[in-house]
Every structure is written in C-alpha cells, then in structure tokens.
Amino acid sequence: MLSEGIGERGVSFESYRERLTNFSNEFDLGLFIYIVKRSVIWIMLCVLLSLAAAIIYLRYTPKAYDSRAIIQLNESNTARKVLQVSDLTDASNLQSEVELLRSRFFIAKAVQNMPVRVSYFFKGDILTSEYYTDSWFTLDLLDVTDSAVFDVPIITVVNGDQVHLNYNAGGRLFELDLPIGREVSSPHFKGVMRVRERSEDEKAASDDEGTFYFKINATNTLAAKYGSQLTVRLADANAKTIEIACKDNNPKIAHDLAQAMAETYIAYDVSRRSEGAAAILNFIRTQKDTVYDQLRIAEEKLMVYQVTNRVADMSQLAPTILQRTSNYEDKLIAEELNISLLDALGNATVGKDGKIDVYDLVPLMVGTEFESTLSNMINALHELLIDREDALVPQKKNSMGVQQLDRQIEIQKTLVLKSIANMRARAEDKHAEYQRMLDQFDASFRSLPEKELEYASIDRKYKIAERKAGYVTNNRILENASLNMVPISPEPNVIYFSYILTGVIISFLVVLVRYILHDNITSLNDIAKMSNASIGILGMVPKYKKEIPISQLLVDKNPKSLIAESFRSVRTNMQFVDNSTGAKIVAITSTISGEGKTFVAINLAGIISFSGKRTIVLDLDVRKPKIHLGFGVENTRG
C-alpha cells in the first residue's frame, strides 16, 4: 500500500512537471515582447482612458464627510434607598443601549432637535447639493396643513419680490406666486418665504443649468435616511463607552447629527430611567403627609417628656440609639409602602368591571422584592389573556374553548390574589414587629436633651428627603462631535491607483488576447516550429517600404542597399548548398498571389547575373503572369 501511494504521488509529480514543461515550451517570450511593442498604443490608450475615468469619477462623485461623538454610561439611583430594596432600574445593558441608539425611534427624536424640518437643494446636471443651514432662500414659521406635501420637491424660482413655487402633490400640479417676507398660504402649508443676498458661488450656480428646490421633511423619512448613515458601536465595554459616527455629503449635517444623537441620549436617558423610580415614589407622595404627622407628634411627646423629667446628658449613647431608631423607622415606612403596594396589586388584579390589565401590574412590581415571586404567575395570567383574545377571533364567547380559558384565567387570578394576601399578612406581621421595636427605642429617646431631639428631628427629615431624590444620571459626552471638512471618500490616491491598475490589467489582457490569436510568422523560429521539420534558411529579404518601380528590379538601382545585400546573401548560400558544375534550377513559389514571387525572382536573377553568370527567368504563372511587366516586354509568345 505504501509503495502504491508513493508511485501515485510520483506519477502526479511527473504529470505536473510535464504540464510546466509544455507551457514553457509553448510560451514564446520573444513573441510576447514583440506583441507588447506592437500594442504600445493600445496600452497607452487603456491607461489614459482609465485615468480619464478616474478624473470623471472624482469630479462627479459626491464627497462624503464623517463626524463622531463618544458617550460614557454611568448612572446613580437613590430612590431605592427609601425601601431598602434592590435598584428600581435594571442594570445597564450596553448592547441594548447600542440598539436603542440605532433604532429609528431614537433617531427620530434626535432629528427633531436639528434644523431639518425643511431641506434646501440645488440640482445640477449630475450632482445635487444640499444647503442645510446655508440656503439663501428659507421657509420660516412653517405650518403644514396637508401631509401630502411631505417629501415632495418644491421647485423655487425668485422673480423680483416674488417667489414662484412649482410642485406636484396628490397627483396634481400646483403653481404659486408668493410674496417675499410676508406670511403666505398654499393648499398644503403656511409660512414666510425669505430671501437673502446671494454669494458669488450661489450666483454662479444659478447661472448654470440647474434647479433650486426645497422639501418639507417627514420625521419618519428623515429617520430612515439618516439611519443608514449612522454607525453606533460599543467602543470599550470596560469603560462603558459608545461611539456614534455619522457620514453625510454635507459636513455640517454629519457633525450636527452625531452631536444631536449624543445630547438627545443624555436627556432621554434621565427621563426613561426615572420612570421606574417614579412608580414607587408615587406611593411615598400619597402617604408623606401621614408619615410626617406621625413623626411630628412623636417628637413633640418626646420633647415634653424630656423637659418634664429633666433627663441627664447621654451624648455617648445618642448616636447608637438614633441610628437604630432611624433604621427601624425606615423599615417601618418600607413595610407600610409594601402593604400599600400589595393593595394596589390586588386592585389591579381584580380590575375595573372584572377586566384585568396586566400592563398595570408590571410597573408596580419593578424593583420590589415581590417581582421574582409574582412575575411568573402574572406572566402566565398574561399568556392566558392573550390566548383568550386569540380564541375570540374564530369563536364566540359561549364556546367551550373560550369558557375553558375563562376558567383557567379565574384559577390563575385566584392564585395571584391568594399570593398577594399571604404576602400582605407577612408584611403586616413585620410592620407590627418593627413598631414594637420602635416603641422600645422611643423610651431611650426620652433620655436625650431638647437640643439633641431637635437635631434628630431635622436630621431624620433631611435623610428622608434625600432618599426621595430619585434618579440622577452621570452619563456624559466624553468627546463632542467635531466638524471635519476633509472628505473621507472618495480618496483620490486610492481612486487613481485602482483605475490605473485596472487600465494596466486590461492592457495585459489585450496583449494576452493578441498573443493567443497571433497566427503570423514573424521569425525563423516560427517557420521551423510550424513546419515541424528541419528546414535550411538561405536568407531573409527585408520589407521594402518605399515605392517599388514597375520593373521591380532594385539591386541595380542601389547595389549597396540592404535589399541588394540580402539578395547577395541568398546567392552566396545557394552556392554553398550546391557547388557542382553545370546549370542550376531554382523554383520560387508561394501559397497565394501578392506575396512577392515576382519581386524575389527578378531581383534574385539580377544579382546572379551581376556575378557574371547567364540567367534565364521563366514565368510559369499561367493565371497571372507578371515577369514580362518587370522587363517591359510583351507576353505574346510563350
């Protein structure tokens, strides 16, 4: 087996080497160089055309600019301290924030902070330029009365103190002449057209063949447009940084969009993440008056007792007692809020008119200790409600399938209510226990002097207020977007190199095709190769580029010319071929007419006769004889 494998590899190697040998034998480097020289014009033409194409591409391709901003995510939430529970908002998921920034919903919010409600353009023969905030004509105080005008090009022509507008909306053509600087009204919008003095470049653009127009943009259209131009990626997971990059044909739009995305995120993040905390703090606001009244009454009683009993100074014990009292007060408040929260969950589960709104239950549980216990049951209840809604489409309410789902919903609702009732009972037990412990510490407070009681009251109120501060964002923009006036594409060096390289490749292909299709004999080697035999070469006669006389005899006109010398070389070689005495016969032939038989025969006979030998030329071309023309005689006999 091993010897057979070695033998097969040997055969494969020999076959490969044979293919290489055949290729090297068939490829004629000299012929290839000859064709390259003959194709110089084509090569130069391909390279020049490629260079011209590169210049045209750079001239008529819109330039793209980019700008980028970097934001860092970091938040702080103190609202959770009120209940001493876990954070009311979920831990920041960087990837989810990246997807939020990529969404059209968020891009639409950012676009609303940019001056892009109306876009102004100049359309030339090929390119279209957007003026953005640099337009010399503007539409201010815009009020859209018909949405059919959104994203429709409105052609603008200024004539003196009037503006002529032309646009197509809803399949109808509208043409309006509106005054400049005054409030105007059209069938689709209201506003004020303003025109400022144009710069020289703007005047030059207006003199060219082109059109000025503007579009009233729809927010969704802008979000879709800019969404394809935005790139949001996670820059550094450890540092919690996100990079926002924008690319546009206008450098100011790229800068403003990147900056608007970053600033809108900071503002939106505060509002979004505060919603969870706000749900719990609403319970605090509804009961704060009651809690404060209870604290005030308790403090007044303590002060009266202190004055009446003249308790001694216990400053060393006061901090410990105050800390424990504060802890139990916080726990007491937390349990009261838990009880209120459980009551709200129970009411939401029962619902109005027997209807259950699961979406009212979820925000109430977020961030509380009941979330993990009740979420599965509420989700199951939610799925049953969805199944019931789906079943009502093909079935009636009194059908067996719908009735079975109603029974399952009632069972699930009962389980939720029983769980809430059990949790409320446990919360009431904890509340009673904390109240008992607090009453014990109240006795310790009675031993504190009046100033300490006043300080404890102020400090306790301050801490409660501090814990209600809620969500505060520490997100920040690490790097503001910069205005980049250098385009990122197209890159001239890359374009020139790629186009010229393409021209060189095309030139090589042209040469290669000409090499493959080449079927002319250009050297002695070609003759030997095509004949597949060993043929002796007597000599070569160069091509005569001047006008050949009627006689076609050239060797007598200039005996020292290159042609005369070539025929002498042929005569000499013929003598070496056969040096015997006597007459010699030489036949001159070719495949078709016009290849030079008559020219070679006359000049070869002439050069032989110049050597002192008598020479006879016989014209055996019975179809088109020409020898007699070379000697200026008539061909009447023969």
Physical arrangement of strands within the biggest beta sheet: 4-3-11-6-7-8
Share in β-strands: 5-15%
Q: What is the count of helical runs?
A: 18
Give the overall shape: elongated
Largest sheet: 6 strands, antiparallel
Radius of gyration: 50 Å
Estimated structural class: alpha+beta
Structural notes for this entry:
This protein has 638 residues and is of the alpha+beta class. It has helices at 2-26, 29-38, 40-60, 94-102, 104-111, 200-207, 219-227, 251-309, 318-350, 358-365, 371-391, 400-445, 450-467, 492-517, 524-531, 562-577, 597-610, 627-631, and strands at 65-72, 75-77, 118-123, 128-130, 137-144, 154-159, 162-169, 172-179, 183-185, 189-195, 211-216, 230-236, 241-248, 471-473, 476-479. It has a six-stranded antiparallel β-sheet, with no helix packed on it. Mean pLDDT is 77; it is low at 81-92, 309-317 and 465-471. The chain is elongated and about 155 Å long. It is built from 18 helices and 15 strands. Helix 5 packs across helix 8 (251-309).
Concise account of the structure shown:
The chain is an alpha+beta fold and 638 residues long. Helices cover 54% and strands 14% of the residues. The chain has helices spanning 2-26, 29-38, 40-60, 94-102, 104-111, 200-207, 219-227, 251-309, 318-350, 358-365, 371-391, 400-445, 450-467, 492-517, 524-531, 562-577, 597-610, 627-631; strands spanning 65-72, 75-77, 118-123, 128-130, 137-144, 154-159, 162-169, 172-179, 183-185, 189-195, 211-216, 230-236, 241-248, 471-473, 476-479.
Features:
15 strands; alpha+beta; elongated; 638 residues
